[in-house]
Amino acid sequence: MSFNVNEKGYYGEFGGAYIPEMLYPNVEELRQKYLSIMDEPDFKAEFNQLLKDYVGRPSPLYFAKRLSEKYNTKVYLKREDLNHTGAHKVNNTIGQILLAKRLGKKRIIAETGAGQHGVATATVCALMGIECIVYMGEIDIARQAPNVARMKMLGAEVRPALSGSRTLKDATNEAIRDWINNPVDTHYIIGSAIGPHPYPDMVTRFQSIISEEIKWQLKEKEGRENPDYVVACIGGGSNAAGTYYHFLHEPQVGIIAVEAAGKGVDSGHSAATSKLGKVGVIHGCKTLLMQTPDGQITEPYSISAGLDYPGVGPLHAHLAQTGRGEFFSVTDDDAMNAGLQLTKLEGIIPAIESAHAFAVLDQKKFKSTDVVVISLSGRGDKDLDNYIDYFKL
Amino acid sequence: MNRITQKLQEDKKILSIYFSAGYPNLNDTVQIIQDLEKNGVDLIEIGLPFSDPLADGPTIQASSTTALHNGMTTQILFDQLKNIRESVKIPLIIMGYFNPMLQYGVEAFCAKCAEIGIDGLIIPDLPVDVYADEYKAIFEKYGLINVFLITPQTSDERIRFIDSVSNGFIYMVSSASVTGSQSGFGDVQENYFERIANLNLKNPQIVGFGISNKETFNQATKYAKGAIIGSAFIKHLSEKGSGKIEEFVGEIR
């Protein structure tokens, strides 16, 4: 079975490009050019140079000794939190800004949930001297104030999305509308492995540096390239896609996806798309989608702004449907406690998104000989207010 | 013959009006349709509201949201329209996003449309390529015309492809925009309208987005067969309620 995108842009039955005609020229141009541009030697050289000198890659693969002892298994952390800007998001924005330049685009738009992708986009726009507009739900603007301030310092304009649930879904709608209104000079940097083809594949490829590094780093540390499990949290699924990418076709590597259960999968306040979603179309792709029986997209909930999305990338929908991926749901409470535990055991404060991935250690029993690589996708600085509120610090 | 095709053969400029079903009140749908016909509108686009209407500007989004709050669903719309052909003769099109249709079942949706007497569909986020591959046969089985959009950025080659797949009219988006964001047309639009007219397509074109009054209607229909008014009509409904449709249509015609 293949987990790569096919020539029409599908992973199994998921994916495609369900876009209004107004977006066709832009999306089609990308579709025709993204692979050849990414394959150009000077593109690769510039991309790799920036990842090394600007982002600080390779990010360490860290053996978490005390966490491993507690769970009697071998836990490695892929430290995407140590990247410049504090999360994995920058891997993709570096790639897309270089691509946008080669497409001759003069203006960048982006959507953001937790603000990590917005910051990563604003950062590369500052680096390249390109105009940047970031759409962010009004609710998220309130709960991620430090990232809003960062984007502004970086010269980006942060435009609030005021419609619907005023979170990531609505920010994405507004960004798409902006792109419809500005079809010639603008590139839309989607931050997750969602959207019309070729976005899910393009974002996955830019993020695949994560699993590429895991392979050689694990070889150095354990004498083998393949772990027994790779674990990542999933909202739209970009860090997960990058963490899984080079293991998708290695059947001995278990793929574990962790979704936000919010207040509980069946509480009515959840973002556990693989459990609650049905096949539908959102933001240009066919995927699993939380919706009413009537096909209206429902408003998800998670304490973490980055996982608060009613869909999931089409690759992940395919992993869920085929059983290649094992999906877990983690509540707000379990995620917060897992975040605090990681802080106390390893001295690392994770983003609340990433904290969800760690809660799997309480849900699944790993063998003592298992090598489990968990993607620590972002650092927790942006979430301090949430931690303070939650734990009454 | 499909009522749309028949209407397009008449020697006149077509005035098409869009409104969101269930707005301003849940049960206004039939009355609005009847009043639009009575006042000389040629074609009606009934908007099936959607939670995330990507191609729409604030006016239609807001009316869509209100309609959903009012309780509108696909099934309720079909129930409201059940006997519409007893009182209304002009062509009726349902315009909506793909996901609600997908959930209803594309074939079941088409069958229901045919049963009620709906003549066509406009589904902005169902691309022509996917339609041609997966759904064309179903639409044809139920005698439904599917209408595709073109924009100033659509290449001639793609326009010809869209023309070849279409069998009613082509929805010509006046400018690069979401609905309701333009006021008036300039040289750019004029050149675009003329370029499309010169392609001699087999399907007539009806212009939408940015038509709000008599002046823009006349500009749009200088080259095209007709024009569609959406946001401006919805604004009228918001301000004057659903009882003053004569006033709005009278201004245009």
Number of helices of chain B: 12
CATH architecture of the largest domain in chain A: 3-Layer(aba) Sandwich
CATH topology grouping of chain B: TIM Barrel
CATH superfamily of chain B: Aldolase class I
Can you give a write-up of this model?
The complex is a heterodimer of chains A (393) and B (253). In chain A, the strands form four sheets. Chain A has a six-stranded mixed β-sheet with strand order 3-4-14-9-10-13, sandwiched between helices. In chain A, strands 7-6-5-8 form a four-stranded parallel β-sheet, sandwiched between helices. In chain A, strands 1-2 form a two-stranded antiparallel ribbon. In chain A, helix 4 packs across helix 5 (116-128). Chain A has two domains: 13-50 and 89-202, Rossmann fold; 56-87 and 208-391, Rossmann fold (3-Layer(aba) Sandwich). The model of chain A has no long low-confidence stretch (mean pLDDT 96). Chain A has helices at residues 24-39, 41-55, 65-71, 89-102, 116-128, 138-143, 145-153, 168-181, 199-207, 209-222, 238-244, 273-276, 314-322, 332-346, 352-358, 360-363, 384-391; strands spanning 10-11, 14-15, 61-63, 74-79, 107-112, 131-137, 157-161, 186-189, 229-234, 254-262, 278-282, 285-289, 325-331, 371-376. Chain A is an alpha/beta fold. Chain B is of the alpha/beta class. Chain B has one domain: TIM Barrel. In chain B, 45% of the residues lie in helices and 15% in strands. Chain B has twelve helices and eight strands. In chain B, strand 4, helix 7 (128-141) and strand 5 form a beta-alpha-beta unit. In chain B, helix 5 crosses helix 6. The longest helix of chain B has 14 residues, at 128-141. The two termini of chain B are 27 Å apart. Classes of the chains: A alpha/beta (393), B alpha/beta (253). Chain A binds chain B through residues 16-22, 24-25, 163-164, 169-170, 173, 176-177, 180-184, 278-284, 289, 291, 293-297, and chain B through 50-52, 54-55, 57, 61, 65, 68, 73-75, 97-104, 124-128, 130, 148-151, 153-155, 158, 173, 176-178, 181.
